[in-house]
Design goal:
Elements: H1 2-54, E1 84-91, H2 96-108, E2 113-120, H3 125-132, E3 139-144, H4 158-161, H5 174-177, E4 183-187, E5 191-193, H6 202-206, E6 216-220, H7 225-229, H8 249-252, E7 263-271, H9 272-277, H10 280-294, H11 307-313, E8 319-320, H12 335-338, H13 341-346, E9 349-351, H14 366-370
Parallel strand pairs: 1-2, 1-4, 2-3, 6-8
Antiparallel strand pairs: 4-7, 5-9, 6-7
Helix pairs in contact: 10-11
Length: 391
């Protein structure tokens, strides 16, 4: 009996020793794993610092692979992958708040891999770079527009010269700005994209199907949702005769119908491969030069000096954009009365073309624009708003 007890106690002690040894081994493995993870983390941080030091001239706004800080207001999609969507937009010094709000709305209502190509003047670059630091994670590059491109292509009439803004012609030169892109979107700066139950991701606009041989898609003025509510009160600004002087011989020779529906070039989906194949830029420049010599544009033309050459070059040779992707004329007189809040809410892209901009005192639906405006860190741009005592 004593021998049995002694053997049992010996076996129990051996089991306890084995259990203790296993526990020690597990503890050692855990400690080794923790040490390994700490080493990996430090190496990644060091690599991130190395990348920063090795790429001081990297494209502004490009995201480094291990960057992980982002504003708590933004969705945590640090690195967006997939097909790049090039978006061309201009940034004039006096309208920088507009382009920032536009990009903010486009980016944060999309999951797409968007790259903004911001065309601006040389003296605006520093201000733009500072403001872009407020747009976390937004991929972009800044392109300097050279006004010399327009020599001989715009009027020298001193009465009309003030209304000519060089950046408005940037859309004509998209293939030069992004030579490797096959397709791109151009957006005016006075737009907002909003997500709703009907969608609103810029990917949908980018996926607009263009017919074979068409270099661009626009939203037509006559049959668009916005035209039915607004353009009827805008004279002939919804057809070709509102933009071109059909009494001029050069226009007559084209054989275009004066009552052809016009389109608005504030939103363009461009097939840049086809654009280059057809030498669209050269064609546009030809008509700009001819207008500078012969004054071919309509005398009633307001500020849309970029529209007439586009209408000529793309006469009955362009595709169409979904009207809800370009609900415009929000900057026209009476827009607040002609558009219902429900219609504005359902729109995917809103465009304040016209005299009244959403950063000014007299515009309609400024509350929609205000959602996406980011204050100027340099405090140069200030939206004008009505106060309680204003009439």
């Amino acid at each position: 009996m004593c021998l049995f007890v002694r053997r049992w106690l010996t076996r129990r002690a051996a089991d306890d020793d084995a259990m203790s040894l296993r526990r020690v081994n597990v503890a050692i493995l855990v400690l080794l794993a923790v040490a390994f993870l700490i080493i990996v983390q430090r190496n990644l941080l060091n690599l991130n610092d190395f990348l920063r030091s090795e790429n001081p001239d990297a494209v502004p706004g490009m995201i480094l692979p291990f960057e992980s800080e982002f504003s708590p207001e933004l969705r945590p999609d640090l690195v967006r992958t997939g097909e790049k969507i090039p978006v061309v937009i201009t940034a004039a010094e006096e309208r920088l708040g507009a382009v920032v709000a536009a990009m903010n709305s486009v980016y944060h209502n999309s999951k797409a891999n968007i790259v903004f190509n911001i065309v601006t003047m040389n003296d605006t670059v520093d201000h733009l770079k500072v403001w872009m630091t407020q747009l976390n994670n937004v991929k972009h590059k800044i392109i300097i527009f050279e006004p010399q491109l327009l020599n001989g292509k715009i009027t020298k009439n001193p009465q009309k010269l003030d209304s000519v803004k060089p950046l408005t012609f940037a859309r004509f030169y998209m293939p030069a700005f992004i030579p490797d892109a096959e397709k791109a979107i151009y957006l005016d700066d006075d737009i907002i994209v909003q997500v709703n139950m009907f969608a609103g991701d810029i990917q949908e606009l980018f996926d607009t199907s263009l017919k074979s041989g068409h270099a661009a898609a626009f939203s037509d003025d006559c049959d668009s949702a916005s035209a039915k509510g607004i353009v009827r009160g805008a004279g002939n600004q919804n057809n070709y005769i509102g933009f071109l002087d059909f009494k001029k011989e050069a226009i007559k020779k084209l054989g275009m119908r004066a009552n052809t529906c016009s389109f608005n070039p504030g939103v363009i989906v461009a097939n840049l491969t086809e654009w280059k194949r057809q030498n669209i830029t050269n064609q546009l420049e030809h008509w700009m030069e001819l207008n500078a010599q012969e004054d071919l544009y309509s005398k009633t033309l307001a500020e849309s000096i970029t529209t007439p050459p586009l209408l000529i070059v793309f006469y009955k040779h362009h595709s169409s954009i979904d009207p809800m992707w370009h609900v415009r004329h929000l900057g026209a007189t009476g827009a607040g009365n002609r558009y219902s809040p429900q219609f504005v809410k359902a729109a995917k892209l809103l465009h304040w073309n016209g005299h009244y901009k959403p950063w000014s005192r007299t515009s309609s639906f400024t509350e929609v624009w205000d959602k996406w405006y980011i204050q100027d860190p340099m405090r140069k741009f200030h939206p004008v708003r009505k106060h309680a005592g204003d009439k």
